[in-house]
Amino acid sequence: AALNMLTSAVGAGMAEADADVRVNSVAPGVIDTAMQTTIRQTPVEKAGEKTATRFSGLHADGKLRDAQSAGRKVAAIALGEWRGEILDIRDEDTKAKIAALLDGLD
Questions:
Q1: CB-count exposure of residue 86 (10 Å: 0-12, 13-18, 19+)
Q2: d(CA 83, CA 14)
Q3: pLDDT averaged over the chain?
Q4: How far is residue 29's CA from residue 36's CA, in Å, rounded to a whole number?
Q5: pLDDT tens digits for 44-72?
């Protein structure tokens, strides 16, 4: 919550000052990285049942995001006109805006 408030305040201040600075907070979701693989391979006794169940479930359900795809979306946000926004790349409206930006880059 504190990061979101800071993002909103600084973003609004930059926009008000007409500064060419973009300040946004991005929630990319859970990214499929080597760390995720390590967590899933860690024995339940060591990782804890809640952690093991959560990350194994995300993987089994196909809910881990590809790092390259998430990176492209974060780059699109950096190139976009958002200022002081709290953005979740899983949100349908945000996804549509990002897709339009990425189409313009290809």
A1: middle
A2: 8
A3: 88
A4: 13
A5: 999 999 999 999 999 999 999 999 988 98
